[in-house]
Amino acid sequence: MAHLLCTPIIASFVMILLSFGLAKSQKATSYTFMKNAVESPAVSFYDYIIVGGGTAGCPLAATLSRNARVLLLERGGSPYGNQNISNLVGFAHTLADNSPNSSAQQFVSEDGVPNARARVLGGGSCLNAGFYTRASLKYVQNAGWNQALVNESYRWVEETVAFEPMVQQWQSALRDGLVEVGVGPYNGFNLDHIYGTKIGGSIFDKHGNRHTAADLLRHSNPAHLTVLLHARVTKLLFRLRGRPRPLAHGVLYSDSAGKLHKAYINKGSKNEIILSAGAIGSPQILMLSGVGPRRHLESMGIPVVLDQPMVGTGMSDNPMNALYVPSPIPVEVSLIQVVGITRFGTYIEGASGSNFAGAPASNVDNKLQRESVFLPKIYQQQPTSEAVASAGEPRNNLAELAFRGGFILEKIIGPLSKGDLKLKNTNPDDNPSIRFNYFKEPKDLRRCVAGLKTIEEVIQSKAFSKFTYPFLSIESLLNMTIGFPMNNIPRHDNDSKSLEQYCRDTVMTIWHYHGGCQVGRVVDRDYRVMGVDALRVVDGSTFINSPGTNPQATVMMLGRYMGIKILNER
C-alpha cells in the first residue's frame, strides 16, 4: 500500500522504477459488471455483499460469483486506464497525490509516521512495490488453514499476477552480500518463505506493467457479479427486534453525487455480508455501524448494536529502518527484488536508483528518473546540507554522492508492539485515529538493531564493495540517511551513535499494517464476527502478525481461500 504520505521517504522503496525504461501502459480492462455507483438502483438484493474491492475483496468476489449473486462495493475508482497505477513511469505520482479522489488516501499515525491507505479497485496491490512472496508453513499452521487449499489458492492467484523479476548488478551485489555475511543459504528465485536469501516474485511483468488484485476479477461469472465504484459505505444495517443477537442484513452506501442507496442480502441462512475494507476500513466501518467498544461509540453518538471492546485493538505496523548507500558507479533502478530472511526476526531488502531527490536532468534517461524518483513530488528535495556535510570526508562529486546509490532496509517480523484505532468522527471518508506504538516492545527494538548491524556488514562485504565509497564510514551513512525527511519524530544528537535511538527516530512504514478485527478477538477461525449473524471480515485486519516478508500474496490467497470455503458451506 498498505501503504503514501505526508510524504517523506517512507515511499522510498516503492517509488523507484524498474530499469525497463518507459514501460508500455497496460490496456484498460472493461468489465461488463463494473459501473459507477450513481447508476445503481436505490434498493437491491444479493446473496453476498462484499464491502471493499481491495486485495482480498477482489479474489473473494470473483470466487463467490461462480455460484452466487455478489455485490462488490469499492469506495475508489478503477485502476484501469490510470497510467500512474498501471505504468511504472507514473508510479510516484499516485502515492504523492493528496487530492480528494486520489487512489492513495494519506494519513499520519499518532506516532508521527506518515502512511497511506488504498482507495481504488485492487486496493494496496495498485500502490505497492510489487514484491510477492508466500507466508511460512508455520504461519499457515498457526492460522489453522488447510495447507492443500492454501497452496491451491496461492497458485490460482499466481497464474494471474506473479512474475520472476529481472535482477541486475546492484540487486545481485545485495544478494551476494547477504549470503557472504551469513544470511544463507541462497535459495534462488523462490515464492516460499524460507530462511536465507532469495529472489522473490513480483506483480510487475517483464514490461513493467503492474498486475493487481483487480485482474483476478476476470475469473468471475459476469452474470452473477456487480462491482460498484465510488460506492462509499456509510454503515451496515442490522435486524435486532425479536432476535437473540444482531443479524447483518444490508448496507447503506452513497454514490459520488451524495445519493444514498441500500443493498440487502437475500433471504437464506447462507447469505452474508463480508467486510474486506482493510486493516483501517473494516474496524472503522464496524464502529460506525455500532459494533465496537460501548463507551467509545457512545462518545461519538453512535447507537450501540454490540458492545465489542476488541474492535480496533491489536493494530500493528511492521517498522522499517534503512541506510542510504551512495554509489561511486552507476546503478540500475530497481524495486525490491531480493530478501534476506534472517533467523533473528528481521528481513533485509533494498532498492536502488539515481537522482533520488529530483536533481536536475538533461537527457531522456535522467528525465525518466526525475519523473519517477523514490520521493513523491512534494518531497523531492535533497538531504539537508548538514547531513551531507556530516559525512566529513573529501569527495569529488557531491551530486553523485547524494543522488546515486541505494537504500538497504530492514523490517522486523510480527511485530510484537500493538496499538489501537479509534474514530475521530462519524464521517466514513475521514481517517480514524491510529497509533501503532512502534518499538513499544523491547524485542522489536532489539530486532531492529540486529537488522541494522546486518546491513552494516553487507555494506562492508566484498560482494557489495564496488557500490560503496571507501571513505564513507557507517556513521557517515547514518548521518546522511538521517538528513532525509522520513517522519515527524524529532531527531536526537546520538542518532548516528546509538542504533536504538536511530531505530526510534528514523522509523518508517512499509504499509504492512494489520489488526483491528483479529481472529480470536473480533472474528472466529471462520472469520465470522463473534456475536453477530451473517457477517464476516476477510482481510488483513484479522491478522495478528504480518505474513511473510510482504502480506499481499497471502491477502489475495485468503480471499480465494475463504471464497472456496464459503461456497463449500453453501
Structure, described:
- By secondary structure, the protein is of the alpha/beta class.
- Helices cover 25% and strands 20% of the residues.
- The strands form seven sheets. A six-stranded parallel sheet has the order 1-11-4-3-15-25. A six-stranded mixed sheet has the order 8-9-20-21-22-19.
- Helix 1 runs parallel beside helix 15 and helix 6 crosses helix 12.
- The N terminus is likely disordered.
Can you describe this structure in just a few lines?
With 570 residues, the chain is an alpha/beta fold. Helix content is 25%, strand content 20%.
Task: Note the topology.
Layout: E1 34-36, E2 43-46, E3 48-51, H1 57-64, E4 70-73, H2 83-86, H3 91-96, E5 104-108, E6 114-118, E7 131-132, H4 137-143, H5 147-161, H6 169-180, E8 186-189, E9 196-199, E10 201-202, E11 225-229, E12 232-239, E13 247-254, E14 260-265, E15 272-275, H7 278-288, E16 291-292, H8 294-299, E17 306-307, E18 313-315, E19 320-326, E20 338-341, E21 346-354, H9 364-371, H10 385-389, H11 398-403, E22 404-412, E23 419-422, E24 433-435, H12 442-459, H13 474-482, H14 499-505, E25 535-537, H15 552-569
Parallel strand pairs: 1-11, 2-14, 3-4, 3-15, 4-11, 8-9, 15-25, 16-17
Antiparallel strand pairs: 5-6, 7-10, 9-20, 12-13, 13-14, 18-23, 19-22, 20-21, 21-22, 23-24
Helix pairs in contact: 1-15, 5-15, 6-12, 12-14
